[in-house]
Write a structure and sequence with these properties.
Blueprint: H1 2-29, H2 35-58, H3 62-92, E1 104-108, E2 112-113, E3 116-117, H4 119-134, E4 139-143, H5 154-164, E5 172-175, H6 181-194, E6 202-208, H7 212-221, E7 225-231, H8 236-256
Parallel strand pairs: 1-4, 1-6, 4-5, 6-7
Antiparallel strand pairs: 2-3
């Protein structure tokens, strides 16, 4: 009976590991951009492996295995609690604020393939277009530098797209030196000040819904009064991937920055 139970545990372990590793490979090599979900699957596979090895150790050294299992479980519970708190903050901020009128909006960039905006960037530019048309006196700071695989900066790609949609170029201010969200916000506020605006006043932040919590926090730390303008991520699984990633980003920001 004991041998049968052990055999079932081994089968369950190998099946679980196989499913998790297959899911990680699917996200990595088929869907390509779902890096966070891939890493979550790999992490889960690693944890399952640790518990399996502790089970094997328990047969020879039960006290040591029990102590190690308790430590591992406590660490996992603490990590899950931190993740839950940070994910809650991300979800709560993932909407357009009711009173979002501001003299300036900052549109945060996303990747460009050569000169072609990615889906995430198109979604952000669409939200910016809607905002600028709803607030005809507002100006926009288009923020995003040029990274690997990009032949023009994200800021220039956004200006080209918005001008083609009928937005006056006189209302668009380029900020094309940033490569992180923190730089986006800091450099954009400098641009607002140079244009005669108040960088410590009300400013609308246009970005993907999952990204608003972190972006607004950077703006608050810089002394501004941010208003969130949410660009909705169209693909549900991609949205899930980014919401999970942002929870880790927020936890990192709270602990280390």
């Amino acid at each position: 009976m004991k041998g049968s139970a052990m055999k079932k545990k081994h089968i369950a372990f190998f099946v679980t590991e196989g499913v998790l590793l297959a899911a990680a490979a699917f996200y990595r090599f088929v869907l390509l951009v779902y890096i966070t979900l891939e890493r979550c699957c790999l992490f889960a596979a690693f944890i399952v492996l640790l518990y399996f090895l502790l089970g094997l150790l328990a047969a020879k050294k039960p006290k040591i295995a029990k102590g190690m299992k308790i430590v591992l479980t406590v660490l996992l519970l603490c990590g899950c609690a931190l993740f839950a708190v940070s994910e809650t903050a991300v979800v709560r901020a993932a909407h357009t604020d009711k009173d979002a009128a501001a003299p300036y909006c900052v549109v945060l960039g996303a990747a460009v393939n050569g000169e072609t905006p990615t889906l995430s960037l198109v979604e952000r530019m669409t939200a910016a277009e809607d905002y600028l048309k709803a607030h005809p006196k507002a100006k926009a700071v288009l923020s995003g530098g040029q990274g690997p695989g990009e032949t023009i900066s994200e800021a220039k790609a956004m200006r080209r797209w918005l001008v083609e949609k009928g937005v006056s170029e006189n209302r668009l201010i380029l900020e094309d030196k940033s490569h992180t969200t923190e730089q986006n916000i800091a450099n954009s506020l400098v641009k607002i000040g140079a244009d005669g605006g108040d960088p410590t006043g009300s400013v609308a932040i246009v970005t993907s819904e999952y990204h608003l919590c972190r972006a607004k926090l950077f703006a608050e730390r810089a002394g501004a009064e941010p208003k969130g303008i949410a660009a909705r991520t169209g693909w549900p699984v991609l949205r899930l991937n980014y919401f999970i990633r942002e929870a880790f980003g927020m936890a990192y920001l709270w602990i280390l920055k």
